[in-house]
Amino acid sequence: MKHYLGVDIGTFETKGVIVTASGEIVAQAARPHRMQVPQPGWAEHDAEQDWWGDFVFVTRKMLADSGIAPASIAGIGASGIGPCMLPVDLAGNPLMNAVLYGVDTRAAREIERRAIQRAEWAVALDPADSRAHLSLGWSLALAKRYERARSHVDEAARLNPLDPWSLLGAALLCGYMGDQATARMLADGAMALTGPPFPKPWAYHATSAFLRGDGELAAEYATHIPIPAVWHQGLHAAALHQVGRQREAEEMARQCLAAARANWFGCEEATDEAVGHWLLHIFPIARPADWERLRDCLVGAGIPAGCSRHHGW
Question: Among 54, 101, 212, 234, which residue carries the largest CB count within 10 Å?
Answer without folding.
Answer: 234
